Amino acid sequence: MNHLLVALDFSKFSSIVENVAYTLAKKINATVILVTIVDKAIDYEPVNTGQVFTDIWEESLRMANENLNKVKIAHPDVETSIISFLGDPDQDIIDLAVKYKAQFIVIGTHGRSGLTKLIMGSTAEFVIRHATIPVIVVPYRMGSH
For the chain, how far is it from start to end, CA to CA, in angstroms? Predict the structure, then answer.
């Protein structure tokens, strides 16, 4: 059985990455492993949901799981598992691909450039450079046509 590791960050263009991944999964009869890794190196303030959490990471992971479950439910015809945790998205995506013996990694870009890219880095670029399996990169501009 083929496996696609699909990294989603639930940014503005994540639905495009999701659609590309599930289209491919159906074509190659693959299972999908949906992954969201909350970046422990970035100061992140979750949206105020009205619930009180003592740890912003707890809320971030709760939201990630909720979003991943919505994606899974939206594609009942494809076997899907979900993974989310606090970590380093760059290396953790590669490690998960190896651990789950994925045939492909599907990831999106944000279209950052210049100083923002220099400061924030690029997970997609890191994955492309270090992965030992094919990486399907969905450009952020794909959704603007």
Answer: 34
pLDDT at position 45 over 80: no
Name the residue type at position 129: R
Phi, psi of 93 (to 5 degrees): -60, -45
Residues 48-68: pLDDT tens digits?
A: 555 554 578 888 899 999 999
Phi, psi (deg, nearest 5) at residue 118: -60, -45
Distances (CA, A) of 145 to 16, 67, 140, 141: 12, 25, 10, 7
Q: Is the pLDDT of residue 4 over 70?
A: yes
User: Which residues neighbour 37 within 8 Å (Cβ) at sequence distance 6 or greater?
Assistant: 7, 84, 85, 86, 87, 88, 89, 92, 93
Note the residue count of the chain: 145
* pTM confidence score: 0.83
The C-alpha atoms of residue 103 and residue 68 are separated, in whole angstroms, by 21
Q: Do strands 135-138 and 104-108 pair parallel, antiparallel, or not at all (unpaired)? A: parallel
